[in-house]
Specification:
By secondary structure, the chain is α/β, with parallel strands linked by helices. It has two domains: 231 residues, NAD(P)-binding Rossmann-like Domain (Rossmann fold); 42 residues, no CATH class. It has eight helices and nine strands. The model has no long low-confidence stretch (mean pLDDT 97).
């Protein structure tokens, strides 16, 4: 049984839907009989995605909207088209970029990363939340986060900050929605692991062989539905390289940095390398 927001005939809105995790979620929701709005800035990729979905699921009811999540005008158009398409019950904020801007480098990359990975999420929430609250039916918002927004490893500061911000935003949203609707409208944070997508593998060709380590985007989409059905907030995904138990130890270690007053990001600090190694030594 699915989360009640995932129901046949209702509308799902997905950003960054032309490829990767967004496309996999769209395909999975089509299987559930939902009408799906696919939003992406790449017109050719979006047309290709719609064609693929129609080929594998001819009855699918699809609407493609081309635009940029960093544009308030584009997001308003997305809202207008989606609400005219039918009864929106699910919004998935998936679009993201991974610019590698350091803590004091390239302010323009920082702004672009935050516009796409955080401000667009907030804008879409502001557009759709009151609409979802106005209905007398179950609904959900899923924001796609990242493990890098939780353990914040060095080397990708802008991306980590944007995903950490999305995590906190989604936690706040979930609590406010619970206070307001007692779980009629819910919010969830999808946390993919290492996944075989164009973001992680730029230039990947369709039909190319997937490396062993990452999960497929389809596995992430399936985990999203399974975890939502169980009423979970953190829709956590492992991968073929890192177990759930190891991820949990890494997250606990990061949280304990503050509690134990260790250096920032001590997991990568030479003075704590052996201590961390011992901390995970019993995991296989």
């Amino acid at each position: 049984m699915n989360h009640p927001a995932i129901r046949s005939g209702s509308v799902a809105v997905i950003t960054g839907a032309a490829a990767g995790i967004g496309f996999a979620i769209a395909r999975r929701l089509c299987d559930e009989g939902m009408k799906v709005v696919l939003f992406d800035k790449d017109q050719a990729a979006l047309d290709g995605a719609v064609s693929k979905l129609c080929n594998v699921n001819p009855p699918a009811k699809l609407l493609s909207v081309t635009g940029d999540v960093a544009s308030a005008e584009s997001l308003q158009q997305l809202y207008d088209h989606a609400t005219l398409f039918g009864d929106v019950s699910l919004v998935v904020n998936n679009a993201a970029i991974a610019n590698r801007a350091g803590p004091w480098h390239d302010i323009n990359q920082w702004r672009q990363t935050m516009e796409v990975n955080f401000w667009s999420v907030l804008t879409i929430q502001q557009l759709f939340t009151e609409y979802l609250l106005s209905k007398d039916t179950p609904a959900a918002i899923v924001n796609v986060g990242s493990k890098e927004g939780i353990t914040t490893p060095p080397g990708n500061a802008a991306y980590n900050v944007s995903k950490a911000a999305a995590k906190v935003l989604t936690e706040q949203l979930a609590h406010e929605l619970y206070e307001r609707t007692r779980n009629r409208v819910t919010a969830h944070l999808l946390i993919p692991g290492y996944t075989y997508t164009p973001m992680n593998f730029p230039g990947m060709a369709e039909g190319s062989t997937k490396p062993e380590a990452p999960w497929t985007a389809d596995q992430v989409a399936e985990r999203m539905l399974e975890s939502m059905a169980r009423g979970e907030f953190y829709l956590f995904c492992e991968d073929n390289e890192v177990t759930r138990e190891l991820d949990q130890r890494r997250m606990q270690w990061s949280a304990d940095d503050m509690i134990q007053n260790r250096p920032a990001l001590s997991r990568w600090h030479p003075a704590f390398a052996e201590q961390f190694k011992a901390y995970i030594a019993d995991l296989k």
